[in-house]
Amino acid sequence: MAVHEIKHPLVQHKLGVMREANLSSKDFRQLASEVGNLLTYEATRDLKTEPATIESWSGDEISVEKIKGKKITVVPILRAGLGMLDGVMELIPNAKISVVGLYRNEETLEPVAYFDKVVKDIDQRTALIVDPMLATGGTLIATIDLLKQRGCNHIMGLFLVAAPEGIEAVQSAHPDVDIFTASVDDKLNEQGYILPGLGDAGDRIFGTR
Ligand SMILES: O=P(O)(O)OC[C@H]1O[C@H](OP(=O)(O)OP(=O)(O)O)[C@H](O)[C@@H]1O
Ligand SMILES: O=c1cc[nH]c(=O)[nH]1
Ligand SMILES: [Mg+2]
């Protein structure tokens, strides 16, 4: 499993603004989407292309490059993953969306699954999981388990912030899954929140703080 920490200045600047405690929900949501967009750009860097012949504006036939191979399904994890979805879809507007719903039990920190609607042909698609936070890794591992049970065999994940503890857990459960994140942060606190982190990303995106 490869972990890509995206050090692009735009990503780092936007993430820095998101760390400010008093940022409005509106601005937090806007930035979550923008960083989601930039992470998508990085995660799709290695997609294969193939030449295709088209008629150009001048009437000449020319060769252009088109993306080939597996199609993508974007997998936002409810709720907080919705905050990044628009930015992700802006770059890959033809991708199908497979929604999964999980929340973390606040006492046990175990993931609780409550919804899924996954595309039928997921066995022929790359899944791009989208969630702002990778903390203990429980939610991501449960999501990958579900996608693999449905036949998916190529999975990547986009996260605004990831904790080393969660990365390690995912690495040992699913070594084939690649992670793209704006930051590998320091650690988890006793309540399982990432430090320095962003706080509760779902609450900040939806204004339920
Ligand atoms: O790595 P983990 O320890 O499993 O934690 C990460 C999960 O916790 C948050 O969701 P939350 O449970 O707060 O649900 P929400 O999106 O509905 O707010 C976050 O968006 C991840 O899905
Ligand atoms: O720091 C964290 C950990 C889990 N979920 C969040 O929203 N934030
Ligand atoms: Mg939450």
UniProtKB/TrEMBL annotation:
EC numbers for this chain: 2.4.2.9
Cofactor note: Binds 1 Mg(2+) ion per subunit. The magnesium is bound as Mg-PRPP.
MF (Gene Ontology): GTP binding; magnesium ion binding; uracil phosphoribosyltransferase activity
GO biological process terms held by the UniProt record: UMP salvage; uracil salvage
Catalytic reactions on record: UMP + diphosphate = 5-phospho-alpha-D-ribose 1-diphosphate + uracil
Description of activity control: Allosterically activated by GTP.
UniProt keyword list: Allosteric enzyme, Glycosyltransferase, GTP-binding, Magnesium, Nucleotide-binding, Transferase
Location of the Phosphoribosyltransferase domain: 7-208
Pathway(s) the chain acts in: Pyrimidine metabolism; UMP biosynthesis via salvage pathway; UMP from uracil: step 1/1
Positions of uracil binding: I194, G199, D200, A201
Sequence similarity: Belongs to the UPRTase family.
Role played: Catalyzes the conversion of uracil and 5-phospho-alpha-D-ribose 1-diphosphate (PRPP) to UMP and diphosphate.
HAMAP family xrefs: Upp_B (MF_01218_B)
Protein name from the UniProt record: Uracil phosphoribosyltransferase
Natural source organism: Salinimonas iocasae
